[in-house]
Amino acid sequence: MLRNRQTFYGWWIVAVSFLVLFVHAGAAFYSFGVLRDVLEDELEASSAAISGVVSIYMVVLGLTAPLAGKLTDKYGPKNVIVVGGVIGGAALLLCSLSTAVWHLYLLYFVIGIGMSGAGFVPITVALSNWFTRRRGMAIGVATVGVALGAIALAPLTNFVIESASWQASYVVLGVITLICCVLPVMLVMKTRPQDMGLLPDGEQPVAVAESATVPAEESAGAGEPGWTTSTAIRTLPYWLTLVAFFFVGMAIAGVLQHEKKFFEDVGIAAATASLALGFTGGIGGVGKVTFGYLADKISPKRTALVCFALQIVGLVLLLNTESAAMMWVSVAVFGFAMGGNIALQPLIIGDFFGLASFGTIFGSIVLAAAVGSALGPVLAGAMYDALDSYNVVFTIFIIGYAVALAALVLARRPKPKTQAP
Fold first, then answer.
1. Contact 40, 162 (CB under 8 A)
2. Cβ–Cβ contacts within 10 Å for residue 4, how many?
3. Whole-prediction pTM value?
């Protein structure tokens, strides 16, 4: 039994989760932004054709999220992450052999399946099992891996391309994925603290004999309603939460994909606009930890309301940007608030519906957010082509945020009426 003076084993789960999300974001998504131009030239493909590669990845990632959740609930996060990491890493390695665009379409379809397993749903299931009072902080710290994955692996990809070739960069990304998602997870990951005779947050049992009589499945979610998927989807709070994260996902993706172009249109130099985009993602890491911490202190729902409201403020500031100084203010506010979104999604689901079918329920929310994320950039691009301005579509995103705020205000932790005998 671990003593109070020793580090709670759950923080090792956080460390491994950080590594998984580091490669999930950096190797599979952000690195492609660096590879895009090279692939256009090498494969003699149009920008639209190459852009379709990452679109396929995002769609598959969203569509398979509920399945990843269901498999995690059944087999545990370790098995799902390891298998997903092997699939994703192997497919990245195979990308180095691509000689046509359709090869990348096929392989990124497979990468999407793999990274759905080595991704947010299994990670948040594990972290939610290991932490109750400090769940927000744990998820916030782990999801900083997303920001650092973008900061570290995108430049590394560019370095390998310039030093060797684009094929070599895929080999490096594949190897990094296998290293981070397989061996550490196999050695460290445990589904729940009860598997090691521990309790969530490192709490000490009142009596050894008493704790030994409590089944792991019951104590893992002590004090939380044990909703099943079938009962959860019959509640209004489930659909209100789904609507909220759909609109927030649409706005975030729409703004991020077009932020650089927006700033260039108002007279900001391209290099400065690119730096601002990177800063938006980087400061999001600070937001993840901050909002995760606040969720532990004042509740996930109230924290999410603050998070959404700050994103509206950031987007309003962005719409009124006329100088570099205002640009930095707007991206600081929007990026910081945007970072909290990914940490708060699982916290709200866990708070509302408990851990009985957390993976499956959360996976369906991830799917809704992914659909919104796929629609946002397309809507922004289409309206820009029609109006030669982002003002109208960014205003629509603000309205979407308002809908998300209203939906979350109306959402309440449901009472498990259907579970009464």
1. no
2. 7
3. 0.77
Q: Which stretches of 164-235 are DSSP H helices?
A: 166-181, 183-188, 208-212, 216-220, 229-232
Instruction: Give per-residue burial for 104-113: e unless 16+ CB within 10 Å, then b.
Output: bbbbbebbbb
Q: Put residue 354 in one of left, alpha, beta given phi > 0 → left and psi -120 to 50 → alpha.
A: left
Percent helix, strand, coil in the chain (nearest 5)? 80, 0, 20
Confirm if 363 and 228 have CB atoms less than 8 A apart. no
Of 181, 190, 179, 76, the residue nearest 131 (C-alpha): 190
For 323, the token pair is: 């100088």
Residue type, 53: V
Q: Which of 272-276, 281-285, 339-343, 376-380 has the lowest mean pLDDT?
A: 272-276
Residue 168 has pLDDT above 90, yes or no: yes
Residue whose C-alpha is closest to residue 377's, from 247, 276, 275, 256 = 256
88 and 111 in contact (C-beta within 8 Å)? yes
Question: What is the end-to-end Cα distance of the chain in Å, rounded?
Answer: 38
Residue-level pLDDT at 122: 93
Across 160-170, average pLDDT: 93
Enumerate domains of the chain plus CATH numbers. Answer: 10-195 (1.20.1250.20), 226-412 (1.20.1250.20)
